[in-house]
Amino acid sequence: MLERKVRVRFAPSPTGALHIGGVRTALYNYLFARQHGGDFILRIEDTDSQRFVAGAEDYIINSLKWCGINIDEGVSVGGPHAPYRQSERKEIYLKYAQELVAKGWAYYAFDTSEELTAIRSEYEAEGKTFAYNYEIRTKLKTSLSLPANEVEELLKSCNHWVVRFKMPENHEIKMNDIVRGNVVVNSSTLDDKVLYKAADLLPTYHLANIVDDHLMEISHVIRGEEWLPSLPLHYMLYEALGWSDSQPIFAHLPLLLKPDGKGKLSKRDGDKLGFPVFPLFWTAPDGETARGYKEDGYLPEAFINMLSLLGWNPGNDQEIMTIEQMTELFSIEKCGKSGSRFDPEKAKWFNAQYIKAADNTQLAELFLPICSANGVEVSLDLAAKVIGLVKDRASLITDFWGLASYFFTAPTSYDDKAVAKFWKNDNPNAIKVIRDIVNNCDTIVAADCEALVHGYIKESGLGMGGVMNSFRLAIVGESKGPSMFDIIEILGKKETLSRLDMALKTL
RNA sequence: GGUCCGUUCGUCUAACGGUUAGGACGCAAGAUUUUCAUUCUUGUAAUAGGGGUUCGAUUCCCCUACGGACUACCA
Fold it and tell me: A416-506: which CATH topology?
């Protein structure tokens, strides 16, 4: 048991974009697999034909790829247990459902959904809660209440029969979870879940999940806390199928909560919260769209780093970690038990740290498309130089344009407040002198130019702040940005003179 | 309503039953700076409440409160 090879799976259902909670679950599974030299498997749980959304599977795969979460086995890469899409495994499940019925662990039920909702509302009207369980299963149309020949008949004639698990009465189900510890539930509080439905010849999540985890030799199930209430059923299914000995070890992760504190983060939150909940931009089949971290200007490494710390931490004060370091330090035992509220501000801070540390040319590659979108074609070399000067001011890749557009296009207007504050007294005259200094240079070299200009300002007795800010105003259009001399070195003599002339003329 | 899970600064979190309850984000102040940032320094702020157990509880147990998940022929 201890020697079992680590095999974990991420098993989303393709009902839409993958939100950041799902990405975190995938990440933890991935880190755990890497750390133990195990396999990370992607299985698509598409047993609900009603909720299937076209494009969702590709979206999931692309998202994992962007995040640097590599799939060892599963949908999109294949493997020894193919297929990994449950809809393509549909013929596997029926025999297990039948086996459970034969062993007395399950039974056939013939109620229609309409009949059941009717009974439910009857119960509700009386203030009671309806549960399909040991008390009621012999009173409804099931293979437990009907004579054998009638059951045979119904199985042939009725196309909507289902197999339900026969949850035993008053049985203490003792479970163990790496995050939660020991949990005990009395089976009488549980209901008889549907395991298989004849209507579409597909199993429900519970059966498919247990069968596939068994067949795919999954060693650890790391999933969200929303599954904890069905863990007793899953334990019982392993027992009923005779697989308890090879049952995976479970870990239920706390949920990611909305920043406003109301409930768990969900796909439907889209970007209504003011920040993306999806890794990539998403376009639903109906045309609805939602923002993504990538398009909002996040670096995948920062995104993953930020997510990793929501519900886990290495136990020391280290916050900035590569995925390799996370792999080394990760442990499920150190995962918290309570839900984490996502903080968009801290996410930005992480990204700013990664931008500062990133290679200028790599950042420039991400910046070029943004320049094009703004109608400016820039060389990679120039973009990299500019980014080198402004990246300390950026939190997102998308900040670069606002921070650096003046390198590519001359200002068309000047910031009023800055004009009022600096473009007065002798400063405009000083700009004329600076213009001459620039004009006398063959090419602009930042350090040389700085020596000349600073020399002049000191000599003239004018204030450094006033002159330099007037200079900045003329070149940039407002009062912000890196060293003036670095800016004009990149701009070049001709452009610098033209901007000075323009400012002298218009201001 | 029922079942289960949880609760340390506003947020993410650390703390063999013994710490001035630590770090980070945010916020505030200061330093540096030609501007805006960056950077650095400092400050701000927490053990939900009540009972136990113990020489001693953030830590163990119980109750209450609050929060969350689940309660489908969805996953």
Answer: Arc Repressor Mutant, subunit A (1.10.10)
